[in-house]
Every structure is written in C-alpha cells, then in structure tokens.
Design a protein that fits this description.
- The protein is α/β, with parallel strands linked by helices.
- The chain folds into 2 domains: 2-154, Glutaredoxin (3-Layer(aba) Sandwich); 160-282, no CATH class.
- It is built from 13 helices and 6 strands.
- It has helices spanning 6-21, 36-42, 74-89, 111-114, 141-154, 160-170, 179-188, 195-200, 206-227, 229-238, 243-247, 251-264, 272-282, and strands spanning 2-3, 49-53, 57-62, 99-104, 120-123, 128-132.
- Strands 1-5-6-4-3-2 form a 6-stranded mixed β-sheet, sandwiched between helices.
- The longest helix is centred in the last third of the chain and has 22 residues, at 206-227.
- Mean pLDDT is 87; it is low at 3-32.
- Zinc ion is lined by residues 1-2, 143, 147, 164, 167.
Length: 285
C-alpha cells in the first residue's frame, strides 16, 4: 500500500537507462512510451504480460499466473475504481496520461517489480501501480488508484498519513467494517495510534501498519466532514505543520474532536485481535 519513494524511483531510472543503452528496452510493445517503473516491468525477462486497454488505463496481467483468472473482470473493476476515486476527488472528465496498472499472481512476484513484497504499490510520479491479484486476494484497486489520482490532482501531500488516509478511505473500509467502526474499536481498546505517531512515524507493515492505515482514514474522514473538502485539501498540502492555516485549529484540538466523535460512534462488538486476523488473511478490499 506504500507510495513510491523518491530513492527507489531514482534507482529504477538508472536501471532503465542502462537497459536502454543495451538496446533491450524496446523489446516489448509499449515499453518505449512507458514511464520508468512501467518500462522496467515490461522489460523484465521471463514475464509474459497480457495487455488490456480501458478508457482510463493500460492493464498488464501476468500470463500463466493466478492473476490471469481475473482477466475477464479486471477491466470493468478498474473503470469502476477510477470512476469512484475521481468522483471523490471531484475531478472532471479524465485527462492526462493513462494509468499503467500491473497485476501479478503472488507477493513474491512483486519483488522484481517494486523491490519488496507488498500487496499493492503505487509509483505515484509515474502514474503506475502494481497489484497482487488472485481470485482469493482481490487487488486493492481503489486504494492504489487513489494514490495515483490524488497525487496527480492535489500534488505531493504534507504527510504519508494524509496520502494513506485518503487512499484507505477510498477503499471504503476493511473486512466488512467502515473505517470508523475499526477506529472506534481501536479507541475502546486504547490501541488507536496518536496523531503525533501518524505524523512522525507512519508504519506501513503488519498489524501496527494496519492500525495506522485505518486510523489515518478515520482521521481524514473526520477532517473532511467537520471542516470540509477544501480544508482537507489545504491540510493535504500543508501537513500538520500547517494545520492552523488549513483548518483554523491546532493539532491537539483536531485529535480531541476526532476521539470524541469516535467515542460517540457505535463500535461493533468485535475485538481488534479478531479484526486483525481477518485483515491479515484477506486484506482490506
Ligand atoms: Zn497506500
């Protein structure tokens, strides 16, 4: 679920440039016009990509992998995710380069593409995202597509938690629960990450990461409905360092109001431990 870091993207640019000098970059159709991360994926030896074109995106599905079982439904699912994310962002008709979306059949297949084994990854500067997609593990389409569209439309965010919060909120919840359901359970169990932790030490992995993704989404939703979408967008740009200019209040007041709203929210009769078991097994979307 992590957005691409500048360091990784820069490293890939170098690799692709070297491949281009060797004459191998144009080996597959579409490679020359693709942004660096997509070009590197298309140039990978031993991977056969099945290509599909939709109005918003170029899709590349790893042939002979479990992802290929989703070929019939992925184009419509991608368009639905793009439409939902665009509507949330208030965007007009599609413009700009099409998204490049890659689908592989397991986490290990992510390693040569993005350097580690997440379930989804967005190279935001390239408009390119990578997904694990199997009939059992549906790709987190709305989450990663939201990374691509939100960075393109709103610019670089003033904090990882803002980017992940908007993307996780776009996915609409987790394990059948709304993000506020999960955040209310976390608050009840005194396991809700502090705002300062989200700001300073956002963690993308494992159980701690899951609490931070979902808490960020709940916090983004709170800011959105309390202060409005234009204020949320100002906060996206300014980050918490500029919270007073963006929202007219300080971070402590935002956090108090968020907790008070969650305390009023009817928390479902589940434990975080039980929720985490389901999330770890099936993911969030
Ligand atoms: Zn993410």
């Amino acid at each position: 679920m992590g957005a691409g870091s500048a360091r990784v993207v820069v490293a890939w640019v170098a690799v692709v440039a070297l491949a281009g000098l060797g004459g191998s970059l144009g080996a597959q159709p579409g490679a020359e016009a693709a942004p660096p991360t997509a070009a590197r994926a298309l140039a990978l030896r031993g991977v056969r990509w099945i290509r599909r074109t939709t109005p918003s995106a170029e899709l590349y599905v790893q042939g002979g992998s479990p992802a290929a079982a989703l070929l019939a439904t992925l184009p419509a699912d991608v368009e639905a995710a793009v439409a939902a994310d665009r509507a949330w962002l208030g965007l007009g008709p599609p413009s700009g380069p099409r998204l490049r979306l890659f689908f592989v059949g397991g986490r290990e297949a992510m390693r040569p593409l993005v350097g580690w084994t997440p379930g989804g990854y967005a190279a935001v500067d390239d408009g390119t995202a990578f997904f694990v997609a199997t009939p059992e593990t549906r790709p987190a389409l709305r989450h990663e597509v939201m990374h691509l569209l939100s960075w393109r439309a709103w610019g670089r965010p003033g904090g990882v938690w803002l980017s992940e919060g908007v993307a996780t909120l776009a996915a609409g919840g987790c394990g059948g629960y709304a993000v506020d359901d999960v955040a209310a359970v976390l608050l009840r169990e005194r396991a809700l990450p502090a705002l300062d932790t989200l700001r300073r030490a956002f963690d993308v992995r494992g159980r701690t990461g899951a609490t931070q993704y979902l808490a960020s989404a709940s916090l983004v939703a709170y800011v959105d409905r309390t202060y409005g979408r234009p204020a949320l967008r100002r906060l996206w740009t300014a980050g918490l360092a500029g919270v007073r200019g963006a929202l007219g209040v300080d971070a402590a007041e935002v956090e108090r109001g968020w907790h008070a709203a969650l305390a009023r929210h009817p928390a479902p009769r589940v434990t975080w431990a039980g929720l985490w078991t389901a999330i770890a097994a099936r993911g969030c979307e």
